[in-house]
Amino acid sequence: DSDVVTVISLRTSCLALMAIVAMAAAVVSAAQQADYAPERDRAIELARAGKHGPALDMLVELRARYPNNAPLLHDETLVLAWAGADEMVMLNADEIDIDTAPVYVHEAVAKSARNLDDFATARRWYRAALLREPAAVEVRAGLAMATGDAGEPELARQYLQQAAPAQSHAPALLLASAYLYELENRFLDAVTTYDAVLSSSPGNTAALGGKIRALRALGLPGQALEIAAAHRNLLTPVEVARLEADRLALQLRDAAYQSAPEDQPYLYIDAAIADYDAAIADDDMLPPEAVRQVRIDRMVAYLERHRSTDAIAEYQVLLAEDPVLPGY
């Protein structure tokens, strides 16, 4: 009996000691948080204002002072993701406990992994987040897209279909669905789905950009350019130039099949060549990497116009600049 009492006493003492240690750790953690809270708040404020460099400088300094502080590790990881520093996000991920980290950290790590084409890691972090928050549509959408990227479109669709009925028309899930259509080369379905997003959110940049991609894939660069012109900062100059080159090439193809008046048999081809000339002469319209392709297309237009001398001259210049030319 005395041995039992002794064991019980020791167990009680251990539990009491553990409780004291836990309380002490909580007190220390609270004290630390009180110490760094103003600096942390300032760093997050800077990051949300787009000043990622100064924000990260502050967070790096804080983490050096409190190296084992998980919330600061989470903050730094999130800001790194905002800054597009995907490789550094993944380095931080090695230190993060996937089972206890907040869902916003799961999502940040998953996005960075997907950006780096590490779809297995992206799916693992998205699944962990979805287990914690099954109703998080952004997480479900991310998991579906990463699964599609990994070559499993049917499973990706299942993730979307498992959303609550009330969430089925959530923009994030519609965007994911449209993206999966793109992966499956179902571009008309993609356009329709992007339009569904734009009907309720006309300025949704993800939907606008996706619709432009799908229209280009459908051979409708003119419509894609109309969207780009209405939203000036949506595409880079190089992306706009590619669309412009596509438009010119399509115009040439159309010209070859259009019935011109008998007295002006080359009316439409001449118009296409004039547009090529204008595009090549305008330094602001096409970046250098796009000019060569447009010149090649114009050479083809010269042949359609029976301007063989001009076509041969252009060919010789292009060949001298770079001997690699398309087979056609």
Structural commentary:
The protein has helices at 2-48, 52-65, 70-82, 86-93, 103-115, 119-132, 137-149, 153-161, 171-183, 187-200, 205-217, 221-230, 237-257, 267-281, 288-304, 308-321. Mean pLDDT is 87; it is low at 24-29. The chain has 16 helices and no strands. 76% of the residues lie in helices and 0% in strands. It is an all-alpha fold and 328 residues long. Helix 7 (137-149) packs antiparallel against helix 8 (153-161), helix 7 (137-149) packs parallel to helix 9 (171-183) and helix 11 (205-217) runs antiparallel to helix 12 (221-230). The radius of gyration is 29 Å and the shape is elongated.
Give a quick set of tags describing it.
single chain; mainly alpha; elongated
- Strand segment tally: 0
Shape: elongated
The major β-sheet equals: none
User: How far is it from the N-terminal to the C-terminal residue, by CA?
Assistant: 98 Å
What's the gyration radius in Å? Answer: 29 Å
Count of runs of 4 or more consecutive helical residues: 16
Low-confidence stretches: 24-29
Order of helices and strands: HHHHHHHHHHHHHHHH
Range of strand content: under 5%
Roughly how much helix do the residues carry, as a percent range? over 70%
Average pLDDT taken over every residue: 87
Give the helix/strand class. mainly alpha
Q: Layout of helices and strands, plus pairs?
A:
Elements: H1 2-48, H2 52-65, H3 70-82, H4 86-93, H5 103-115, H6 119-132, H7 137-149, H8 153-161, H9 171-183, H10 187-200, H11 205-217, H12 221-230, H13 237-257, H14 267-281, H15 288-304, H16 308-321
